[in-house]
């Protein structure tokens, strides 16, 4: 095996890895020796010294030696093997819920063992539940670990002992088959070799400072963090370069439609909106597809930017699609675009899952013939039988709600016509700079960092549910003064049916408490036409109070609404709470948001509610959200793996990103072979996701 590259050596060459074990290891992405060596510990345990039983501290993870004094099976609520050991300084109880006859015999009275685990306080003194242990013959000197003991990410059916045994074998092979160095020599100066870094991180010496590891500052860790961040940046640069090889239609600026639209509006675009529109125009002039992310806080006017981009394409007799994550938002967009575009002679259509029969077939035919120049819809647009005449621009709203394959499906729809559509991706969830520089490095980014004039900051308070009656009176007072209010209902279960029930129950409660008030209800299980009618009534001030589920999170614009109550606010994430709060404060009236919660609050919920009380700035909120939830959840990529890192922690390591970006550009331009190999090492499953 000497001399072979580790990425070419399958794990089945190791002792103990047959077909069954190989399949289990594959579940956590382990196929080759290189995969195994890059599967780094989550944390470490110190098993390098013994602790006397009378010195044990509750909560510590400790190694003890002792002789079995007593062992028995007890039958309480659960069958249990209970064993007491002594080292002469005190006694320790070991408890096993899962055990067999071999274990019982191995823990018989008089046997001597070494055990390791977390010390807990028990009724009869210290105890360990399910310790790791091994027999220790009294003739042998007590064998302790030479290095800190790693704890690896695992999966069902793979024990820590198995992963340690396999990495022991892999580290021996690493001495004869050094892992290939892919960084140019000038970048490696002052860095540990990859082989030494892996050896250190898998089997660290007892004196290694674990605080350095936790902070991501140990030289061995920095060696791998550097390489993994580089691989991600290089994959994004490769994706962008790949996209530029595709053909797209080039559009010269044509303002005759956009000027007509702007002349009809009661407001003028902000400087930030005009700047972003100009950036989009420059992209559309290229003969390769635009890939641009537009981010802006709640209410910053992204829809108008999207409309002005669409008009550039429609002016050249091409079609535009705008895709939204919910039917309510798709309907709202369709309504806005009809209001803006139909006076200009532009047909606006919409497609959603709930459309059936002749109405749906008719709409599909109009889209396929090119009669509809602007199409708004939900995931229904992805279906294979939906055809376009000349699809040249795809606008994706709240892109993190869509799966990778869904976005790819729209990309491919354009491909069928001989060119790729330009892509404009919009989000009202501001993305922390750290994430934008990593997960979205393949996209050009525009930020609408200015709110339209006349918007007022929203005052936010958190109030326990025990004061619910006070809040109901507050709603009554606000509506009596001519303003409007939202009452948002949430449930733990993500179920439209249960959310609808919660909203219906709240409707009954508030109708009884506020008999003179005009109250409406909107939730995800209502028919689209019903929802739209209720929303129009609220917008037209035919209703004072709107009870809703989180379907109103995005896209609803009612300037007269100045009070938002969010029931069970502790159950929602920061970004969602910020989005909901953005439904008020859209006019010149002082606006308030009440976060109604059920105590006791978890520490995470306390942090979330405090952040919302402290700031209205979506970018500050997004940074806190990143720190609380982590990048995978924030990007909606927990399942797709796009933001999953082996060593990198984006929150901890963000200070490194600007320099890594600079190095990645240098490697991409001057070392294409090494760049490709780095991507394959760290992102073996990376595919077209960056292009979608």
TrEMBL record:
<dbReference type="InterPro" id="IPR045562">
    <property type="entry name" value="RecG_dom3_C"/>
</dbReference>
<dbReference type="InterPro" id="IPR011545">
    <property type="entry name" value="DEAD/DEAH_box_helicase_dom"/>
</dbReference>
<keyword id="KW-0233">DNA recombination</keyword>
<protein>
    <recommendedName>
        <fullName>ATP-dependent DNA helicase RecG</fullName>
        <ecNumber>5.6.2.4</ecNumber>
    </recommendedName>
</protein>
<dbReference type="InterPro" id="IPR004609">
    <property type="entry name" value="ATP-dep_DNA_helicase_RecG"/>
</dbReference>
<keyword id="KW-0547">Nucleotide-binding</keyword>
<dbReference type="InterPro" id="IPR047112">
    <property type="entry name" value="RecG/Mfd"/>
</dbReference>
<keyword id="KW-0067">ATP-binding</keyword>
<dbReference type="Pfam" id="PF00271">
    <property type="entry name" value="Helicase_C"/>
</dbReference>
<dbReference type="InterPro" id="IPR033454">
    <property type="entry name" value="RecG_wedge"/>
</dbReference>
<feature type="domain" description="Helicase C-terminal">
    <location>
        <begin position="481"/>
        <end position="627"/>
    </location>
</feature>
<dbReference type="InterPro" id="IPR012340">
    <property type="entry name" value="NA-bd_OB-fold"/>
</dbReference>
<keyword id="KW-0378">Hydrolase</keyword>
<dbReference type="InterPro" id="IPR027417">
    <property type="entry name" value="P-loop_NTPase"/>
</dbReference>
<comment type="function">
    <text>Plays a critical role in recombination and DNA repair. Helps process Holliday junction intermediates to mature products by catalyzing branch migration. Has replication fork regression activity, unwinds stalled or blocked replication forks to make a HJ that can be resolved. Has a DNA unwinding activity characteristic of a DNA helicase with 3'-5' polarity.</text>
</comment>
<dbReference type="Pfam" id="PF00270">
    <property type="entry name" value="DEAD"/>
</dbReference>
<dbReference type="InterPro" id="IPR001650">
    <property type="entry name" value="Helicase_C-like"/>
</dbReference>
<keyword id="KW-0347">Helicase</keyword>
<dbReference type="Pfam" id="PF17191">
    <property type="entry name" value="RecG_wedge"/>
</dbReference>
<keyword id="KW-0234">DNA repair</keyword>
<dbReference type="Pfam" id="PF19833">
    <property type="entry name" value="RecG_dom3_C"/>
</dbReference>
<keyword id="KW-0238">DNA-binding</keyword>
<dbReference type="InterPro" id="IPR014001">
    <property type="entry name" value="Helicase_ATP-bd"/>
</dbReference>
<comment type="similarity">
    <text>Belongs to the helicase family. RecG subfamily.</text>
</comment>
<dbReference type="GO" id="GO:0016787">
    <property type="term" value="F:hydrolase activity"/>
</dbReference>
<keyword id="KW-0413">Isomerase</keyword>
<feature type="domain" description="Helicase ATP-binding">
    <location>
        <begin position="283"/>
        <end position="448"/>
    </location>
</feature>
<dbReference type="GO" id="GO:0003678">
    <property type="term" value="F:DNA helicase activity"/>
</dbReference>
<keyword id="KW-0227">DNA damage</keyword>
């Amino acid at each position: 095996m000497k001399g072979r590259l580790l990425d070419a050596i399958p794990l089945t060459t190791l002792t103990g890895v047959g077909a069954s074990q190989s399949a289990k290891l594959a579940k956590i992405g382990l196929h080759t020796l290189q995969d195994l060596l890059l599967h780094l510990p989550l944390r470490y345990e110190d098993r390098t010294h013994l602790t006397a039983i009378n010195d044990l501290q509750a909560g510590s993870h400790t190694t003890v030696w002792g002789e079995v004094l007593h062992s028995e099976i007890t039958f309480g609520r659960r069958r249990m093997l209970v064993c007491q050991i002594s080292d002469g300084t005190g006694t320790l109880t070991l408890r096993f819920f899962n055990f067999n006859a071999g274990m019982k015999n191995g823990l018989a009275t008089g046997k001597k063992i070494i055990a390791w685990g977390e010390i807990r306080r028990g009724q009869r003194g210290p105890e360990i539940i399910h310790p790791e242990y091994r027999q220790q013959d009294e003739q042998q000197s007590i064998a302790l670990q030479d290095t800190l003991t790693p704890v690896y990410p695992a999966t069902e059916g793979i024990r820590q002992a198995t992963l340690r045994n396999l990495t022991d074998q892999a580290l021996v092979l690493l001495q004869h088959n050094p892992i290939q160095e892919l960084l140019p020599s000038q970048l490696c100066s002052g860095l540990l070799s990859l082989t030494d870094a892996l050896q250190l991180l898998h089997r660290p010496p007892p004196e290694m400072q674990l605080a350095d590891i936790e902070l991501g500052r140990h030289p061995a860790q920095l060696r791998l963090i550097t390489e993994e961040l580089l691989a991600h940046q290089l994959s994004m640069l490769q994706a962008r370069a790949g996209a530029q090889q595709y053909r797209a239609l080039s559009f010269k600026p044509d303002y005759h439609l956009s000027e007509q639209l702007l002349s009809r509006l009661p407001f003028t675009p902000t400087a930030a909106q005009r700047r972003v529109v100009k950036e989009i125009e420059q992209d559309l002039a290229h003969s390769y597809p635009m890939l641009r992310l537009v981010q802006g806080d709640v209410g910053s006017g992204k829809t108008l930017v999207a409309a002005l981009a669409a008009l550039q394409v429609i002016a050249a007799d091409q079609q535009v699609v705008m895709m939204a994550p919910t039917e309510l938002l798709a309907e709202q967009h369709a309504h806005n675009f009809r209001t803006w575009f139909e006076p200009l002679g532009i047909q606006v259509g919409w497609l959603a899952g709930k459309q059936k029969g002749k109405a749906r077939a008719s709409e599909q035919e109009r889209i396929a013939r090119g009669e509809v120049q602007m199409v708004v819809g939900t995931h229904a647009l992805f279906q294979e039988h939906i055809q376009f005449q000349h699809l040249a621009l795809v606008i994706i709203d709240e892109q993190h709600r869509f799966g990778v394959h869904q976005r790819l499906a729209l990309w491919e729809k354009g491909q069928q016509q001989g060119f790729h559509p330009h892509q404009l991706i919009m989000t009202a969830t501001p993305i922390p700079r750290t994430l934008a520089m990593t997960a979205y490095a393949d996209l050009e980014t525009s930020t609408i960092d200015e709110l339209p004039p006349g918007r007022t900051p929203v005052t936010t308070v958190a109030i326990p549910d025990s004061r619910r009656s006070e809040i109901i009176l507050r709603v009554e007072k606000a509506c009596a003064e001519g303003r409007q209010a939202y009452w948002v209902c949430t449930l733990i279960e993500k179920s439209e049916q249960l959310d609808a029930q919660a909203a219906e129950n709240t409707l009954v409660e508030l109708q009884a408490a506020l008999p003179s008030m005009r109250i409406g209800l909107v939730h995800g299980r209502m028919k689209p036409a019903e929802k739209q009618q209720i929303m129009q009534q609220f917008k037209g001030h035919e209703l004072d109070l709107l009870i809703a589920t989180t379907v109103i999170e995005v896209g609803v614009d009612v300037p007269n609404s100045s009070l938002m109550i969010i029931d069970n606010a502790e159950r929602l994430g920061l970004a969602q709470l910020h989005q909901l709060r953005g439904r008020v404060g859209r006019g010149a009236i002082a606006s308030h948001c009440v976060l109604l919660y059920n105590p006791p609050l978890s520490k995470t919920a306390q942090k979330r509610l405090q952040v919302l009380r402290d700031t209205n700035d979506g970018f500050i909120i997004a940074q806190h959200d990143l720190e609380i939830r982590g990048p995978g959840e924030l990007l909606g990529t927990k399942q797709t793996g796009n933001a999953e890192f082996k060593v990198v922690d984006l929150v901890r390591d963000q200070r490194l990103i600007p320099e890594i970006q600079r190095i990645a550009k240098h490697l991409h331009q001057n070392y294409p072979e090494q760049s490709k190999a780095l991507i394959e090492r760290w992102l073996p499953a990376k595919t077209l996701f960056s292009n979608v």
